[in-house]
Amino acid sequence: MVHLDIKPDNILFSKSKDIFKIADLGLSRLAKIRQGEDVKEGDARYVAREILNDIQLGQDVYELSKADIFSLGISIYELIRN
Length: 82
Fold this sequence. Notes:
Blueprint: E1 11-14, E2 19-22, E3 32-34, H1 49-57, E4 61-63, H2 67-81
């Protein structure tokens, strides 16, 4: 499963328990989908360019398993930078 909308706004932190949670699972889906299936990505600022290019080119099978890792990396970078 992939989330497809990981960004700082969707990462919750509990100070009392020191736990992070991922919220807003509305776009989550299976990691491999076939051509013709609807792919709705989250905030384009946090989606890997390769994923956006594959969607625009109309690839036969999309591999989305690494999409959340890229989004999480960008989110962490933004949090460190600020």
